[in-house]
Structures are given as structure tokens and as C-alpha cells.
Design goal:
Helix 3 (24-40) crosses helix 9. This protein is 68% helix and 3% strand. It has helices at 3-13, 15-19, 24-40, 53-60, 69-77, 80-100, 123-133, 135-139, 144-160, 167-173, 175-183, 191-197, 202-234; strands spanning 43-46, 109-112. The protein is mainly α. Strands 1-2 form a two-stranded antiparallel ribbon. The chain has 13 helices and two strands, in the order H-H-H-E-H-H-H-E-H-H-H-H-H-H-H.
Length: 235
């Protein structure tokens, strides 16, 4: 059984745990982050379940354009939520046809490349820096929700294969509580939802995120300097 297929089933049963709500857009970016991080860690999906799904959707809907399966679903279902549930129904049909036609001849697995060690891929420095410069390339549009889902997928993939977090990743873990303290909110809402609540729209929320994150990092560094100075004075 392919790990991605299992993950999709878990998200279907309880989307709130993974992506906050039934949303095809959130699902798309979460899975995108998940697969990208596995690839960066040296794990290669062989014949993973969604291979060919985009072409299958285009053929099913008689669409000759380059629209993605997500865009096709949202267009045909009229809402992001409806598209989420429709995806699993269609995906099940796709998998059955795929298996029946013997396109997939062996069980889907994730294979570790034995000749590649786990690289220390710094997602919170390299990825965030790249997204800040060109958000459209990575997110499609300026959206703090999409950024959140992408980062969740990255982090979930690392935890799933037992890779310890990098120093910047551990540093990012404190951003949630910092945002809660800054806005005086203890409702259990994610950092992205809190920032979005105090913004006009997704675009402004994304811009505000980078400003707040920079402020958070600056405060952390200042605290570390103060602690170091205090230790030196003790000596």
C-alpha cells in the first residue's frame, strides 16, 4: 500500500486534523509540500497513486486546455468544499480503472535511494526566502493559507520518515505561540488563520506574515544575545 494513498484516505476521513477544513486547494498544497519534501529527502515515489490523474480528469471532462485537476474540479463543483469531496469519489474511480487496465503493474511503494543520505534541506530558510521573492511561482497566488498547507506537508513528510527537524524548523515551531501572544488569542487557531483574521485578504495576510516572521526572528536573536551577555557578566 502506497504511503501517499494511505495519507489521502486519512485526510478524507478527518480533513480538519491535516488541512483545517474540507478544501481541495488546501489538500493540493499539503500533498504538494509532502511529495516535494520526500523527494528532497531522497525518497522517490514509484508509480504513486495520482500519476495520470490529471490527464484522466481532462479526458473525462473533455477539456483540451492545460487546466489542472484542481481547477477542473473547482469549476465543475462550484465550490472548494464540494470539490474536495468530489475528488475522492473520482479518485476512487480512477484508481479502479488504473488497476483494471494494469497500468500499475506492481504495488506502489516509496523507495529510499540507498546512495543518497538525508540532506539537511532547510525548508524555513530556503523555501520561505524563495516564496517571499516569487510567491506566484510556488503558491499560484498570494495566499497565506496555501503557504501554511505547503509547510505542513513538508513538515509532515519529515516526521513521517523520522528525520529530525533542522534548527530553523525548530525555531519556526515557536512562531505559533508568539503570534498567539502578540494578538492575545488563545483559541487554538493556527498562525495563518490568526494573521488572516486581522488582514483584509489572503494577499495582505501573506505580506504581513513575512513582516511578522522577520520580527519574530529578530526578537529571538535579541533574546539570545541578551542571554549570552548575561552569562558573560556572571563570569
Amino acid at each position: 500500500m502506497n504511503e501517499l494513498f494511505t495519507l489521502l484516505q486519512k485526510i478524507k476521513e478527518n480533513p480538519v486534523i491535516y488541512i483545517d477544513k474540507p478544501s481541495i486547494t488546501c489538500l493540493d498544497f499539503f500533498v504538494g509540500g509532502y511529495l516535494s519534501q520526500l523527494s528532497n529527502l531522497g525518497l522517490t515515489p514509484e508509480g504513486y497513486p495520482m500519476e495520470g490523474f490529471n490527464e484522466w480528469m481532462q479526458e473525462r471532462e473533455k477539456i483540451n486546455t492545460t487546466q489542472s485537476w484542481v481547477e477542473i474540479l473547482i469549476f465543475s463543483c462550484s465550490s472548494d468544499r464540494n470539490a474536495f469531496y468530489s475528488f475522492f469519489e473520482l479518485f476512487e474511480k480512477f484508481i479502479k480503472q488504473k488497476n483494471n487496465s494494469k497500468i500499475q503493474e506492481s504495488e506502489d511503494v516509496l523507495r529510499l535511494r540507498q546512495d543518497l543520505m538525508f540532506p539537511r534541506f532547510d525548508i524555513y530558510n530556503e523555501i520561505l526566502g524563495a516564496i517571499k521573492k516569487r510567491p506566484g511561482m510556488y503558491l499560484g497566488t498570494n495566499s497565506i493559507t496555501r503557504l501554511d498547507m505547503l509547510l505542513r506537508g513538508y513538515s509532515f513528510a519529515r516526521r513521517e520518515v523520522g528525520v529530525s527537524p533542522t534548527e530553523p524548523e525548530r525555531e519556526f515551531e515557536g512562531f505559533q505561540s508568539w503570534i498567539e501572544d502578540k494578538y492575545g488569542i488563545k483559541s487554538g487557531q493556527s498562525w495563518s488563520k490568526i494573521i488572516l483574521f486581522y488582514s483584509i485578504d489572503e494577499y495582505e495576510a501573506l505580506q504581513k506574515f513575512f513582516e511578522l516572521f522577520e520580527e519574530y526572528l529578530h526578537q529571538n536573536k535579541s533574546s539570545e544575545v541578551d542571554e549570552t551577555s548575561g552569562l558573560n557578566r556572571d563570569y
